[in-house]
């Protein structure tokens, strides 16, 4: 897999909620942060969205919006209007005048992601992805949103698996868009994948996480000196290359421990440690707890209440 696919797979998107959102006249709604990815595609009209502390952004017919994690935000018919408190839900929403045909129509939704690695992985992604209709790509995203809505509306066999696959495709399709703001400090992975030399390094790390990589090895792949490569990698990704490798190994380890299907020896071998003992030492040093205790805590956290 390529790095973006690896990260989206580890996020394990699931449990989607999708619904129509409409409005008429003058209206505004304010939502608190709800720590889950959200998406919207506008079918008709326009609205204004403002993330907490940032100026409002116009979203019009055919535009697609993805928030990898949802901070406090407002959505309104125009900037400056009073915004009433809103609550996320799974039923259709009508804003403003309740009578007459809506002048704003969209499909919006949210979904869950695996909490174990969410802070690490979400930190590599941009705060907001807005894909204008003028670029044509939103048509593909619109079809995906419609499929998500169809699955959400029924309880057919295999629903959760189909939703997960659709959400994975939705995330990859949105995140690989080349128009994402390269100055967004949280777009590190995407900026790295746009840089041919860093992309080559990132693909090498993800393709062979077991290898004992050194900065010299990776700099050679990048065709650069060690110092120049390390500085460039840190500038774009927010950490050094060996630290990135260590974080990715721990992310894979945490995911494997959560699943509970592999022995410590096998996990250690798959992510590049000589023994279960060496892996356990590294894991405890980084997370402050042994792999065994971590796995038990993760299992207890997801166990159904009796």
Task: Spell out the blueprint of helices and strands.
Blueprint: H1 3-11, E1 14-24, E2 28-31, E3 38-44, E4 46-51, E5 57-60, E6 64-67, E7 73-76, E8 84-85, E9 93-96, E10 104-112, H2 118-122, E11 129-131, H3 138-152, H4 159-175, H5 188-194, H6 196-207, H7 215-222, H8 226-237, H9 241-259, H10 264-271, H11 276-287, H12 291-302
Parallel strand pairs: 1-9, 2-8
Antiparallel strand pairs: 1-10, 2-7, 3-6, 3-10, 4-5, 4-7, 6-11
Helix pairs in contact: 1-4, 3-4, 6-7, 7-8, 10-11
Organism: Plastorhodobacter daqingensis
Pfam families: Cupin_6 (PF12852), HTH_18 (PF12833)
Domain HTH araC/xylS-type: 199-297
Show unreliable segments.
none
H/E series, N to C? HEEEEEEEEEEHEHHHHHHHHHH
What is the fourth-level CATH superfamily of the largest domain? Regulatory protein AraC
- End-to-end Cα distance, whole Å, is 39 Å
In DSSP terms (H or I, runs of 4 or more residues), the helix count works out at 12
Physical arrangement of strands within the biggest beta sheet: 9-1-10-3-6-11
Report the β-strand fraction as a percent range: 15-25%
Q: Report the count of strand segments.
A: 11
**Helix/strand structural class:** alpha+beta
CATH architecture of the largest domain: Sandwich
Topology-level CATH name of the largest domain:
Jelly Rolls
Shape: globular
Q: What's the CATH class label of the largest domain? A: Mainly Beta
Q: What is the radius of gyration computed over CA atoms, rounded to a whole number of angstroms?
A: 21 Å
Question: Which percent bin holds the helix content?
Answer: 40-55%
Mean pLDDT: 87
Domain HTH araC/xylS-type: 199-297
InterPro entries: AraC_lig, AraC_XylS_family_regulators, Homeodomain-like_sf, HTH_AraC, HTH_AraC-typ_CS, Tscrpt_reg_AraC-type_HTH
Protein name: AraC family transcriptional regulator
Pfam families: Cupin_6, HTH_18
């Amino acid at each position: 897999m390529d790095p973006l696919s690896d990260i989206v797979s580890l996020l394990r998107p699931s449990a989607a909620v999708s619904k129509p959102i409409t409005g008429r006249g003058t209206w505004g709604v304010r939502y608190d942060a709800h720590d889950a990815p959200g998406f919207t595609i506008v079918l008709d009209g326009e609205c204004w969205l403002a993330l907490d502390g940032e100026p409002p952004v116009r979203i019009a017919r055919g535009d697609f919006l993805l928030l990898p994690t949802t901070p406090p935000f407002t959505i309104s018919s125009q900037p400056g209007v009073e915004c009433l408190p809103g609550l996320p839900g799974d039923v259709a929403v009508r804003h403003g005048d309740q009578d007459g045909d809506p002048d704003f129509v969209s499909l919006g939704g949210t979904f869950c992601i695996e909490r174990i690695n969410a802070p690490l992985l979400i930190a590599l992604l941009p705060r907001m992805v807005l894909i204008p209709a003028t670029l044509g790509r939103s048509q593909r995203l619109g079809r995906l949103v419609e499929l998500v809505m169809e699955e959400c509306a029924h309880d057919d066999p295999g629903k959760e698996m189909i939703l997960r696959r659709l959400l994975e495709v939705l995330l990859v399709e949105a995140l690989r868009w080349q128009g994402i703001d390269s100055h967004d400090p949280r777009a590190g992975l995407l900026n790295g994948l746009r840089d041919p030399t860093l992309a080559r390094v990132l693909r090498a790390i993800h393709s062979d996480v077991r290898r004992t990589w050194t900065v010299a090895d990776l700099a050679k792949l990048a065709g650069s000196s060690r110092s120049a490569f390390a500085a460039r990698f840190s500038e774009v990704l927010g950490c050094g290359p060996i630290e990135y490798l260590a974080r990715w190994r721990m992310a894979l380890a945490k995911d494997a421990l959560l699943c509970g299907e592999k022995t410590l020896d096998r996990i250690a071998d798959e992510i590049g440690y000589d023994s279960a003992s060496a892996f356990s030492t590294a894991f405890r040093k980084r997370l402050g707890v042994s792999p065994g205790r971590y796995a038990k805590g993760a299992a207890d956290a997801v166990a159904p209440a009796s």
